[in-house]
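Entry 12.
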Amino acid sequence: MANNHSLDALSTTPGTLIGTGKLGGLGRSGAQPLRKLYPPIEPYATGILEVGSGHSVYYEECGNPNGKPVIFIHGGPGGGCTEGNRCFFDPKLYRIILMDQRGSGRSKPTASLVDNTTWDLVRDLETLREKLGIEQWMCFGGSWGSTLALVYAIEHPARVSELVMRGIFLMKDEELQFFFQQGTSMIFPDAYQAYSQHIPVAERNDLISAYYSRLTSNDEPTRREAAKFWTTWEMSTSFAKPNVEYILKGDDAEFAAAFARIETHYFVNLGWLPTPDHILESVDKIRHIPTVFTHGRYDVVCPFKSAFDLSQKFPEAEFIVCGQSGHSAGEEEHTSELVMACDRFAG
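Predicted 3D structure (tokens):
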């Protein structure tokens, strides 16, 4: 057994217990009370981008029209934006822009997979930036939102002023296998039982593909049932302490249809990234961009290793470990750290 001196050394040495990161949230030294979201606000402008292939992409602007521009990049893919997503930013200082990605949220047609790839979404972000007359904006995203923020920044580094991210997801097969096949199943076997048993035994060796075949079926009841079980699994595991409100999203047929169908579409194609390690291989292009990212030590949706690996390739970034948290931005440690990061970058 290590002595106390050795444990103290481990806790402060880069590359060991918390990587190149530092403890945030409840683990902060001399921590003040955790920060909360800013109060609810309404958009001052909304619009639709006609991006081709039949897609009408919804966007909105909130806060200060003359403030610092920030684009909120939602998760999933397929999750869409919510009213609470507006509230990570000081509305007096930020021009807050939200966009529902193709097939998601208020964008139409719902759950469409036509020309719906990572690279289409990168182009949509650029189309929106240009339409709004923005030279540079801060990119804020969690989970899949972190993936898209990173890929966008790698493609257009001159357009990104800062990156603020949570729950790093690198779109790697090892991450998908851990969460959707075997890994998280060992931690949430109760939730995994219903998710896995929806699929016949003969197909359970590849649950993502099995769900994808059902979510792209021509039979509406087949799609609806698959969407419910897929979405309930992810929502059941997103908080370190399961959140009933999230779990019930599986019963929201419209939300689940887009969320599950678009997610599996992206996952069976590994996001159409050119190599399995595209983000880590390309990170040198963005190491000059001021960056903060948080990750929950007990995140079982996007494993902690992804954030650790990113921190090793991107040591300039501030890597904040939320030591009592899981995956969701709705957990109090993540919320607090993200609000504080945005406050610092507001200028």
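Annotation: Residues 1-16 have pLDDT under 50 and may be disordered. The first strand starts at residue 22 and ends at 24.
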